[in-house]
Design goal:
Layout (H helix, E strand, L loop, with lengths): L1 H9 L3 E12 L1 E4 L6 E2 L2 E2 L1 E2 L18 E4 L3 E5 L2 E12 L3 E12 L12 E2 L2 E2 H15 L4 E4 L7 E9 L2 E2 L5 E2 L1 H7 L1 H9 L9 H7 L3 E2 L6 E4 L3 E6 L4 H37 L3 H27 L8 H13 L1 H55 L1
Parallel strand pairs: 13-18
Antiparallel strand pairs: 1-9, 1-13, 2-12, 3-4, 5-6, 6-8, 7-8, 8-9, 10-11, 14-15, 16-17, 17-18
Length: 379
């Protein structure tokens, strides 16, 4: 009996896992040929169990997925087993999720897991090396691959197992718990080790977007991290919604860079006043317009779910935190600038052709008059 009491006392108050989500843009897109294996392991379509919080008919894109064997590392609390999953997206991106288990007494103790340092080095460096290996093996499947990996888009999700208890050890609803620990949660999401440094305004802002479906579950979303409180079997669907939003952000940033380069190149070529350069710019702008139309369709297809479902509301709030609508507006504005350049060059090209045709007609008319004059003079 005393041993059982000691086991209960020794158990940490908060248990769960930290899920690190990394998105990498690796190519313009992938070929239609399916990937059969990666690192010698079979590739399977992603699946998770449906619940009342998700639509009966799932609209989610199901990417090709590879679950790697767990690896052992030494973390902040000693030896840990790390799970890694790779997802391959047809838009030319890969997503890598890393799961690290934890047991802590206080929620603020998880701040150390934000930028996880392992005995062998940082987790970020390990994931980036893994992404490079994936990119190298999948090189034959890529169309217009990137010359090198740019900075990853990372998101950290702290998944705490429900149900929670209050300070007296009694069961507490997730929303009541959040109200009692709002500053601690804000410190966790903002990676602030000293809770006293946070203002009430910042605490309210960081924890302002939260959703709850049952009494025991809760999702708090911020820009750089999120807190999920739920049954372990129900973590997956929420995590996947956040993973898709993170992928969208990475791809929007990649295409924004592509548009910046295209605009800069177009302005430079136009300034050269070369007819050959103008023809090339016109052709390039036409290709970019077509490419972006297809890109927008494929990017939208990976998050094609709407309505009043709980998962749709989670996506809407995460998208708001990521400012995805602002990214879309920025890209649309740059597309409009490209379209204006295209129309301007097209109009200029038409004017040149019209001027050439008019000059030809005048020249033919002059030649006809000369021949007529010479003919009359000959008589």
């Amino acid at each position: 009996m005393q041993d059982a009491v000691r086991e209960v006392v020794a158990k940490k108050r908060y248990c769960g896992e930290v899920v690190y989500i990394y998105a990498f843009d690796v190519a313009y897109e992938m070929s239609r040929e399916p990937v059969r294996s990666l690192f010698g392991q079979p590739v399977k379509p992603f699946e998770f169990d449906k619940s009342k919080r998700s639509p009966k008919q799932l609209f989610f894109h199901r990417p090709q997925t590879i679950c790697l064997s767990p690896i052992d590392r030494v973390g902040p609390e000693g030896s840990i087993s790390i799970d890694r999953v790779i997802k391959i997206l047809p838009v030319g991106a890969i997503s890598i999720t890393v799961r690290v288990p934890f047991e802590v007494d206080r929620i603020e103790d998880l701040v150390a897991y934000h930028d996880l340092q392992l005995e062998s080095g940082s987790l970020n460096d390990e994931v980036r090396q893994l992404a490079e290996e994936v990119r190298a093996e999948l090189q034959p499947y890529y169309i217009r691959p990137v010359p090198h990996l740019v900075d990853e888009e990372a998101y950290t999700v702290f998944c705490v197992e429900a149900p929670l208890t209050n300070d007296e050890g009694l069961p507490s609803s997730a929303e009541h718990w959040l109200q009692a620990h709002r500053r601690q949660v804000a410190a966790l999401l903002t990676q602030e080790s000293n809770i006293a440094n946070l203002s009430k305004q910042e605490a309210d802002e960081s924890t302002g977007r939260y959703l709850s479906y049952y009494q025991n579950d809760l999702v708090v979303m911020d820009w750089d991290a999120a807190l999920v409180i739920d049954e372990p079997d129900d973590f997956e669907e929420t995590l996947y919604v956040m993973e898709l939003a993170n992928l969208q952000l990475a791809e929007l940033e990649a295409y924004d860079r592509l548009l910046d380069e295209a605009l800069e190149r177009s302005y430079r070529d136009l300034a050269s006043r070369s007819m050959r350069s103008r023809v090339q710019v016109l052709h390039e702008l036409k290709e970019i317009r077509i490419d972006l139309a297809r890109f927008n369709d494929e990017l939208s297809n990976i998050t094609k779910f709407f309505g009043d479902w709980h998962l749709a509301r989670i996506y809407e709030n995460v998208a708001a935190r990521f400012h995805l609508s602002d990214w879309h507006r920025t890209i649309e504005q740059k597309l409009k600038t490209l379209d204006d350049l295209y129309q301007l060059l097209k109009h200029d090209q038409n004017n040149r052709w019209m001027l050439l045709l008019e000059g030809t007609i005048v020249l033919l008319f002059v030649i006809d008059l000369i021949m007529l004059f010479l003919g009359l003079k000959g008589h």
